[in-house]
Design brief:
The complex is a heterodimer. Chain A is mainly alpha-helical. Chain A has one domain (15-167): Arp2/3 complex 21 kDa subunit ARPC3, CATH 1.10.1760. Chain A has helices spanning 6-11, 19-40, 48-60, 63-80, 87-105, 111-136, 145-167. The longest helix of chain A is centred in the last third of the chain and has 26 residues, at 111-136. In chain B, a hairpin with a 4-residue loop joins strand 6 (169-176) and strand 7. The chains are: A mainly alpha, B alpha+beta.
Chain lengths: 173, 410
């Protein structure tokens, strides 16, 4: 894994995007996350808002922006479900913060690192969700880690395809 | 102090956002009487606005995608349909003719069934009004098996209405928005429906597990439950009408938490993963057409008249001589035979005369000599209304009630 020194970190390019990308991509991720399970049925093993959160957090390398985007997407995801609002918000806030913090230290252009990061952060998001649900709220919830593993793999595969596509929308000086 | 905030700015922002959301969660979650915590589904007024925003944000694009997909699908299928439309038309006409005959027979059966139900005072709930809706989206989360339909409060939908397909039950309406509604699927963990096994008549509660499979919980171990048995709604949950198909028993597994109990895994009758069109049951009250209601009224009045005739016949039968109780007084309690107390059994008279209970009135001119019993008279006979003066006071008082009965005797 390519670790970067402090000097190289300053030289890292902070990705910038048109405002419309900041608005439409998260919205599209929410809409597709809500619509695609209808088409794919039980094989909808992905979390598009999480992948988008990780992408922008890694690209922007700003923990605050990553946290805010994760919180916003998570809260809207919660609002579409029948769970309490804040469960996904908390999980994705933490993931956004961590992704941005890691993005400062790692070369996130590497495909292997992207794949691994998505996989690990997806599992972390599931773990935080479960922790908040069962421990913090004390509400019963049956859980399948196998399903979460499939979702983490699905997120990694989607990230491999989606990240290069979104990279094309970067603003270059 | 400033340097602290600047140095830990990122972390402080994260903590502040987490704190706000945790407080928000604490407001939504309640401790219930059993000591556990639950997300109270009836108390989401505080978060309703955000759900409305999310629905307003996601539903229009979803609807647009759904309609575009349908339009493309119909365009494509219509093109192919046109190619063989003549042949299909002929076949369809033949099918229609056949179905008309079948429909006429079925309609007659259905009307007869409704009349019979009305006659029997049948009060079970049946589905009478449904709203057809298209599924336009889902929650997108494996932990929340809810989906959205394109009908809302403008179409008369309300929370807790049952949602079904032609195959079986699907879920219940949870949140209703102006143009859409959120439906909680039966295979969600928080869902619950009362069900009954068709042959064994064992009742249980249907809910989903973490993998989205249907299971019946809270059943004592019973060897009669076999795979393939049909599961129906029991009707006790006040949401699903009784007798709707739920699925078939897939397998029986032991309850991991309770030894004496089992979990029955159910294969759903409806395709819960691939829902396109659903029906929302908007009313379960009986609503007959005017003609049907008229038929039912006629049948009811016929039934009442038949019942009156039966009652009158029963009264007459009680007054007929020599049927069951030799000491029964004619016309006794004729007005209310059902409430009549049992007649006391009198001791046999040593020297009966015409005033003795049960003694026959004697026609004029044939009265025996005083002090001699009339051996030719039958011991139990009907009172003669032509001689009211010959009856005791209690007997004459009941004669008016016996007039109709005696008048019919030959």
């Amino acid at each position: 894994m390519a670790l970067l020194s402090a000097d190289t970190r300053r030289d890292l390019e902070i990705h910038r995007y048109p405002l419309v990308v900041y608005l439409l991509v998260p919205l599209a991720s929410l809409v597709l996350q809500a619509w695609l399970p209808r088409v794919l049925g039980r094989f909808s093993w992905f979390d598009l808002p999480l992948v988008v959160t990780i992408y922008f957090a890694l690209g922007r390398r700003s923990p605050i922006q990553g946290t805010l985007m994760g919180a916003a997407l998570g809260v809207f995801e919660d609002a579409l479900s029948h769970h309490a609002i804040g469960l996904n918000g908390i999980a994705k806030s933490c993931v956004g913060y961590l992704a941005a913090s890691v993005g400062v230290r790692l070369d996130v252009e590497n495909f292997t690192i992207r794949l691994l990061l998505n996989f690990l952060l997806s599992l972390l998001s599931s773990a935080i969700f479960l922790f908040v649900y069962r421990v913090l709220l004390g509400v019963e919830l049956e859980w399948s880690w196998l399903l979460q593993l499939y979702i983490a793999i699905g997120n990694s595969i989607i990230a491999l395809v989606l990240f290069p596509v979104l990279d094309r929308f970067q603003l270059r000086d | 102090m400033d340097s602290f905030f600047v140095r830990y700015r990122n972390l402080l922002v994260l903590l502040a956002i987490l704190l706000v959301q945790i407080v928000g969660l604490a407001v939504q979650v309640r401790r219930v009487s059993t000591g556990r915590y639950s997300l109270d589904p009836n108390d989401d007024s505080g978060v309703r606005l955000i759900r409305l925003w999310a629905d307003g944000l996601v539903s229009p694009p979803e609807r647009a995608i759904h309609n575009s997909r349908l339009a493309i699908f119909y365009l494509w299928t219509n093109y192919f349909d046109l190619r063989q439309v003549r042949k299909q038309n002929r076949e369809l006409e033949q099918t229609i003719d056949r179905l008309r005959l079948e429909q006429a027979a079925l309609l007659e059966d259905a009307r007869q069934g409704q009349r019979l139900q009305a006659l029997l005072g049948f009060r079970e709930k049946y589905i009478y009004t449904t709203v057809a809706a298209q599924v336009i989206g889902s929650s997108g989360s494996e932990q929340s098996r809810v989906f959205y339909i394109d009908k809302g409060s403008k179409d008369g939908l309300k929370p807790d209405m049952a949602v079904i397909t032609g195959d079986g039950i699907v879920g219940k309406v949870r949140d209703v928005f102006p143009d859409s509604a959120q439906v909680l699927a039966v295979n969600d963990q928080t869902s619950g429906a009362g069900v009954i096994l068709e042959t064994t008549r064992i009742r249980g509660i249907l809910r989903g597990n973490a993998d989205g499979q249907l299971m019946i919980v809270g059943i004592l171990a019973d060897e009669r439950i076999k795979p393939g048995e049909v599961v129906l709604t029991a009707g006790g949950d006040l949401i699903f009408p009784r007798g709707l198909p739920v699925g078939v028993v897939q397998k029986v597994v032991r309850d991991p938490d309770r030894d004496a109990f089992i979990d029955v895994m159910v294969t759903p009758a409806a395709h819960l993963d691939r829902l396109d069109e659903v029906l929302v049951i908007s009313s379960t009250e009986p609503r007959f057409s005017p003609q049907e209601q008229k038929d039912i009224d006629t049948s009811q009045s016929d039934a009442e008249s038949i019942e009156e005739q039966l009652k009158a016949s029963q009264i007459n039968a009680e007054k007929l001589p020599g049927l069951d109780n030799g000491n029964a007084t004619p016309g006794q309690n004729a007005a209310n035979p059902a409430a009549a107390p049992p007649a006391p059994k009198l001791l046999p008279t040593l020297h009966p005369d015409r005033f003795s209970p049960g003694a026959a009135p004697t026609p004029p001119g044939s009265s025996p000599a005083p002090g001699q019993p009339d051996s030719s008279a039958p011991p139990k006979t009907q009172a003669n209304p032509a001689q009211p003066g010959s009856q005791s006071g209690s007997q004459s008082g009941s004669q008016s009630g016996s007039q109709s009965g005696t008048g019919r005797n030959p």
